[in-house]
Structure formats: structure tokens, C-alpha cells
Amino acid sequence: MSRVRPEADARPLAGQGSPDGDAECPAAPDLAGLTDAESAAVLVAQTATFSASFLRWMERRSPRGLNYARLRLIQALHCGGPAIMRDLGSQLGASPRNMTAIVDALEEAHLVVRRRHPTDRRATVIELSADGAREAEQELGPRIGALSEIFADLSPAERTQFSAILGKLMRAIKDRQGSC
User: 64-139 adopts what CATH topology?
Assistant: First the structure.
């Protein structure tokens, strides 16, 4: 079994040291000299640490409980109009259980309403309420902008490269499990 070199183990990864990931972030580990398995293990740890830190970072920038998933649903309804809940779930990549939780929270906040489908009694149509439409018009752009401000630290070339790498990794996930 491959093992990461002890000096690689001793290097802290970004976000380690505090539950919020606010510890000083060290430079990226040097993968030179590591075997493929060892460098893959370091990348797994870095990706997991970044993902958790990024999600916490986004949550702290989501006032009134409007996390990214809820903002995406508001955006989908704002851009596409009322839609069947299962179709929204497919579009957003959310399971039926998660879609129900997202819609429940937005309904409780008076931002969306559920309606019975006019011809399919098994389907539920979700639409923005008047407050939800107002929220989408006034707040959607600035809130998504606040969530994306971290990418201002990347040059245009780095953003293009980052997007390409994420796309490649998402395709690898899809190829290995059948969906993203």
C-alpha cells in the first residue's frame, strides 16, 4: 500500500486548524517526487478541505438563509418561470428529498408557492411569490456576485483553466458513477 511521505503528512492543508477553515493557508504542497498514488491522496485531501471551506465561506455570505441551492432555485424560477418540482430538481441536480427541503424553506420564507399542476395531479408546480419575484429582481445578482468574489483572485487565464479542470473532473465522476 502506498503511503504519502511523512514530510507531506506533516504539511497542513488549507483550512486546517480552525473549524471555520480560517487558519492561515499554507502554499500548495509540492507534489514533485511523490508517486501517482501519493499525489492523488494529497489532491483528495486538498479538494475535500477546499470544498468544505468554500461551502462554509458561501454560507457566511448567504443572509436570511438563502444558501446557494436556494438562490439557484430562485434564479431558475426567475429565468424560466413556474416549473414542475421534479424538473427543477433535475435541472439543479438535487434529489427529490433535497428539493422538498429547499422548497419548504423558501415557502416558509414566502419566496415561493406550490401549486397543483393543472393537468397532472401527481405533479407540483413551483413559482415565485410576489416577494420572491421582488427578491430575484433586487438581490439575485448582488448575492451571486458576493458568492463569486473569491474568483477575482484568479486571472482570466486561471479562471479558464480552473473551469476546464472542474469540467474534466465532473466528467470523470459521471463516467465512473453515471451522473454528476
Answer: Arc Repressor Mutant, subunit A (1.10.10)
